[in-house]
Q: What sequence folds into this?
């Protein structure tokens, strides 16, 4: 049965010098002539289940990415990815790249960040963050002002705690505090 099916499909799909039927029609005709209605009806539920599961998986993964991307700057995500790669497989080249970006490389597992908030952290929130390993520099709090509706505070975060920090409803966004600043010359050379 399989050999007959392969022969029929090959004869229907493969180019024929004398055939004026386009390839996509040859494929369609091959399937229509070689599969009965009952066989097609048996296959359809299987493909429907695969389609539904695939859509569900894409939906879930996109939701996770969106939350992380909405609350984290791209620079922070890049630096955390570099740190994780360096922890997993250290290279001098990557370390040099990190240093040239202004990243602190004394403790690769920690990332210095700015946490943007609508209001200053309460003592309970500070304790909650401390319990997951985040060090808050309370004296660094900059409150919101007219043109900037969110305040921010400096913190050190273990690189594996990004998702836990993002999940906090009082955290509006996160950004890296590790950048290289260079003077802006008023007199270009």
A:
């Amino acid at each position: 049965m399989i050999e007959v099916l392969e022969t029929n499909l090959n004869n229907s799909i493969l180019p024929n010098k004398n055939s004026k039927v386009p390839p996509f029609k040859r494929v369609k005709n091959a399937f229509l002539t070689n599969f009965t209605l009952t066989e097609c009806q048996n296959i359809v539920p299987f493909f429907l289940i695969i389609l539904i599961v695939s859509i569900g998986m894409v939906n879930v993964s996109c939701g996770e990415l969106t939350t992380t991307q909405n609350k984290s700057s791209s620079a922070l995500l890049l630096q955390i990815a570099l740190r994780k790669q360096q922890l997993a497989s250290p290279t001098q080249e990557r370390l040099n790249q990190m240093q040239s970006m202004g990243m602190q490389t004394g403790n690769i597992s920690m990332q210095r960040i700015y946490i943007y908030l609508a209001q200053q952290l309460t003592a309970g929130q500070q304790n909650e963050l401390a319990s997951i390993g985040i060090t808050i520099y309370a004296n660094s709090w900059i409150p919101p002002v007219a043109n900037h509706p969110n305040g921010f505070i400096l913190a050190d975060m273990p690189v594996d705690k990004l998702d836990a920090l993002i999940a906090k409803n009082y955290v509006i966004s996160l950004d890296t505090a590790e950048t290289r600043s260079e003077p802006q010359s008023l007199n270009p050379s």
